[in-house]
Amino acid sequence: MGSSDPIPTFAPPSGMHPHHASTIQNIIARLFPIPSVLALILSGSIAHGFATAESDVDVLVVLTEEAYAERQQTGEINFVDAEVATYPGGFVDGKYLSLGFLREVAARGSEPARFALEGAVVLFDRIGGGALEDVLRRAVRYPVEDKRERVVRFRAQLDAWRCFCGEARQKGNAYWLGLAATKLVLFGGRLILAENEVLYPYHKWFLRVLEGVKEKPEGLMEAIKRLVEDPSEENVEAFYELVKGFRDWPQTPNRWGAQFMRDTELTWMSGHAPVDDL
């Protein structure tokens, strides 16, 4: 397949909005003739099945390693293109990467980085040999080998942010209380996602993905709604006990405070990602 070959025709799946399909065809036509573009991947809300009629079109542009390195040097690693959109307010949101980058995601990517590739649709592929399909398949695998360690770390965070909710309430610090309640929901939810071996999608789709898992405490989503809207002591404790009692979660042999320090306050020393970003 070369840049002089006919532009591939996108075959939209049943149920896709026609304006999304035509916009996708337009971005294929724009990028396919560029020799340094090895592949184009549909991602984002459309690929995940979360799109509305107003959603933008997210794509991943796979470049040669040389072209990707150049863009890393200049900082030009993403783009927004409204000209190819066929609907009011629409645009294509694109990110540049390389096959090497995708291999890094498959080997050691964070859960959000992996989730970003779930449901990905290859729009065209010059790499060949099944290499792109193989790396995408490996990239979206839940890292089961790290599951127990992550559960231990998330469980410590659950205890920490429950404690901080009480501290914030006593001090009358509304900002601290709002943050602590949100973090309590985050790590309680991440425990449930880990139990189901489901990737954490980052904040935007977090509650939607969490709601869809099979194994979760009865009334979980309602408890989250009450806690977010009103982080009272009653709602904090109800959510905490609901998650805590759902499983016999493995815990750190030390106090949760030491684990919290390692995962939150001391990551700058180790160079490891904060626990929020795993």
TrEMBL record:
This one is known as: Polymerase nucleotidyl transferase domain-containing protein
Q: What is the lineage of its organism?
A: Eukaryota, Fungi, Dikarya, Ascomycota, Pezizomycotina
Q: Which organism is it from?
A: Thermothelomyces thermophilus (strain ATCC 42464 / BCRC 31852 / DSM 1799) (Sporotrichum thermophile)
Which CDD domains has this protein been placed in? NT_KNTase_like (cd05403)
**Pfam families, per database record:** NTP_transf_2
All copies of domain Polymerase nucleotidyl transferase, residue ranges: 24-85
Output the InterPro entries linked to this UniProt entry: NT_sf (IPR043519), Polymerase_NTP_transf_dom (IPR002934)
A GO MF annotation of the entry reads: nucleotidyltransferase activity
